[in-house]
Specification:
The complex is a heterodimer.
Chain A: H1 20-30, H2 40-51, H3 56-66, H4 70-77, E1 91-96, H5 99-103, H6 106-117, E2 123-124, E3 130-135, E4 147-149, E5 152-154, H7 159-170, H8 192-198
Parallel strand pairs in A: 1-3
Antiparallel strand pairs in A: 1-4, 2-3, 4-5
Chain B: H1 21-26, H2 31-36, H3 42-52, H4 64-69, E1 79-84, H5 94-100, H6 102-116, E2 120-125, H7 130-145, E3 161-166, H8 176-183, E4 207-211, H9 212-224, H10 226-231, E5 233-235, E6 238-239, E7 241-248, E8 254-259, H11 264-271, E9 281-285, E10 294-295, H12 296-300, H13 308-313, E11 322-327, H14 332-346, H15 352-372, H16 377-387, H17 396-410, H18 412-421
Classes of the chains: A alpha+beta, B alpha/beta.
Chain lengths: 199, 432
């Protein structure tokens, strides 16, 4: 939890509205719940996906949609680590250094990554391409040390794998997850069958 | 050393087709739902699960059937919240259950909902888990299309909707009532109990909260019977298997589904390949970060068993099944300090005892590790410990106290040496 987090004031002229596509997605999410507020966190995640991070304009727009005060929304935003009030890089590296990963060299992995990217943990590189965050247990301790880049998990990480990942991402090439994630269905397929079934 | 046993919830893990509906059905999938829907009285399903002895696999080990029976039948609507917010350090089983066998979970959910009379279930999936969410979401689509979920399932008259709900990064949302608050769109602040969720839960309605692994066992219990399930394990209170998540200094870290009642030593040396680099065992955390640490002596000479009750007798707990193994190179002050920092980060901040206590413990331990230990630090830690137990809304504070209390008690000399020498005698092997 971010104790003492600061409210991210936006410039006055900044505006936020969901794209028609995301607005439709939000309606589908709202339909799951008997009470509207349950969709608040999914709505914030959707807004973050669209805007890059949660600005005060995002919170004001979401608050109006949910008939809440912006401070109610801020109360939720400041509680959850995945809701970001500052921009992160296009490729956001989350390196676990909880006990199981620490025992198997997480600190070395983090240092190597910071050097390789020229970007310290807690920061975003000047070109906006990369950011690094030290995170608590990701729930992949059998594959320690592990890290996450955006949505994908990478297990049994070595400095050589870090080099490989960074080199590919620097060139704009895609990277594939390593470990249990490999067994999951591809990203584009998820949810499509459900929507088809729901008509 | 290896014994003959049957895998239950991971029985399809080797099969790449298992995560599709066709693959699941081809291996007996949805037979349990066909067996009970409209054919077996819901109360008989509860009795069946009670007779199986199935206990919750999320942390507390509470008997599943008994939990269901606390739900008042006359209050509607009722909800099921599936706890897939796996975040206990050392635990990585629900992630794989959701990725590799999502239909098994869905079938378990349908059985629970039918037994308790629930028409809406939410699968709360940890925010970081994208692949598990994709896998479950696709499986839900397939199951809806085939009529296993929705109205009037298989013509039985019973209907049930199942939805996924994604978190946004907060360990405390794995606590039952923190999860409900989060599912209601709020900060994940645990609720004061009683009332318990079985009576006043999601949206103030009766709610069952079950872990992913617990639910994944249900289709097998329905198909093969309570007696078969109770026959696996060590006694009538410790039945079935557990997914032991072995991590740390072992040769083969990973998931091992094994019957309850094996010793910790058998799991580490018989299944996880033993210690790596020829080093000796020093300590084991047997059930996730909240479970008090065991010494090598307790594991090797004491032959501590890994079922719920044997671990409780040993002063620890089975918790979430996360087994973190540490060899002689590991520093216990550093390990405790690292976990204390985790609890500090994850304290929701409602109770001052927890908010302040976790922070102070983390600060003292990490300062001690960095060479700044003071003569009165150990006495201060000892005085913080009892104040952090039993004085808060949820057990995060207790978990932190149990964690550092056990490290302090069992490795007291190592803590004293840190203070006396003004440095880590082991050279802080795992900085950060």
């Amino acid at each position: 939890m971010a104790l003492g987090a600061r409210f991210p004031h936006s410039p006055r002229e900044e505006r936020f509205e969901f794209t028609p596509e995301n607005r439709a997605e939000l309606d589908r999410i709202l339909a799951k719940y008997p009470q509207k507020r349950s969709a608040l966190i999914p709505a914030l995640r959707l807004a973050q996906k669209q805007a890059g991070h949660i600005t005060s304009a995002v919170m004001q727009h979401v608050a109006s949609l949910f008939e809440l005060s912006p401070m109610d929304v801020w109360g939720v935003v400041s509680f959850y680590t995945m809701l970001k009030t500052k921009p992160v890089g296009k490729h956001h590296f989350m390196v676990c250094d909880n006990l199981s990963c620490a025992l198997l060299g997480a600190a070395g992995i983090l240092r190597h990554l910071e050097r390789r990217l020229g970007c310290r943990a807690g920061h975003t590189r000047a070109d906006g391409k990369f950011s690094v965050e030290r995170v608590e247990c990701l729930g992949a301790c059998g594959g320690a040390p592990c890290l996450q880049i955006n949505e994908d998990y990478f297990e049994h990480v070595t400095p050589a794998l870090v080099d490989e990942l960074v080199a590919a991402l620097e060139k704009g090439e895609p990277v594939s997850p390593v470990g249990a994630d490999e067994a999951a269905p591809p990203r584009e397929g998820a949810g499509a069958a459900r929507e088809k079934a729901a008509g | 050393m290896a014994i003959r046993y049957e895998k239950i919830v991971t029985s399809r893990f080797g099969d790449p087709e298992a995560l599709t509906l066709a693959g699941y059905e081809a291996t007996g999938g949805y037979q349990a739902v066909r067996k009970i829907l409209g054919k077996m009285e819901p109360k008989d399903v509860i009795e069946l699960v009670k007779a199986s002895g199935l206990r919750g696999r999320g942390g507390a080990g509470f008997p599943c059937g008994l939990k269901w029976s606390f739900v008042p039948q006359n209050l509607n609507p009722k909800y099921l919240a599936v706890n897939g917010d796996e975040g206990e350090p050392g635990t990585f089983k629900d992630r794989e259950l959701m990725i590799r066998d999502p239909h098994q979970l869905i079938e378990g959910i349908l059985i629970a909902c039918y037994a308790v009379g629930i028409a809406k279930a939410y699968i709360y999936i940890r925010g970081e888990f994208d692949a598990p969410w994709r896998s479950v979401e696709r499986a839900l689509g397939e199951a809806y299309a085939k009529g296993y979920i929705g109205e009037n399932i298989l013509g039985s008259g019973f209907g049930c909707d199942i939805y996924t709900h994604r978190g946004a990064g907060a360990y405390i949302c794995g606590e039952e009532t923190g999860l409900l608050e989060s599912l209601e769109g709020k900060r994940g602040h645990p609720r004061l109990k009683p009332p318990f969720p079985a009576v006043v839960g999601l949206y103030g309605k009766p709610t069952v909260i079950n872990n992913v692994e617990t639910l994944s066992n249900l289709p097998h219990i329905v198909n093969k019977g309570a007696e078969w399930f109770a026959g696996i394990g060590i006694d009538e209170k410790n039945t079935g298997t557990r997914m032991y998540c072995v991590s740390g200094h072992v040769k083969k870290p990973g998931l091992y589904e094994l019957p309850l009642g094996l010793t910790c030593e058998e799991i580490i040396f018989g299944y996880a390949g033993g210690m790596r680099n020829g080093k000796g065992l020093k300590a084991v955390i047997p059930g996730g970060a909240s479970a008090p640490v065991l010494t090598a002596q307790e594991v090797i000479e004491g032959k501590v068993k890994m079922d719920f009750d044997a671990l409780a007798r040993a002063g620890s707990m089975g918790g979430s099944g996360g087994v973190i193994v540490m060899d002689e190179t590991a520093c216990m002050v550093q390990a405790a300090g690292r976990l204390a920092r985790f609890f500090e980060h994850e304290s929701c901040g409602q109770c001052s005892v927890c908010r302040e206590g976790t922070g102070w413990v983390s600060e003292i331990l990490n300062r001690m590790e960095a060479g700044g230990g003071r003569a009165d630090d150990l006495a201060t830690l000892a005085s913080i410990d009892p104040n952090m137990r039993g004085n808060t809304i949820c057990v995060l504070s207790d978990a932190c106290a149990m964690m550092f209390g056990a490290f302090l008690k069992k490795f007291h000399g190592e803590f004293e040496a840190h203070v006396a020498e003004g440095r880590c005698p082991l050279g802080s092997p795992y900085p950060g």
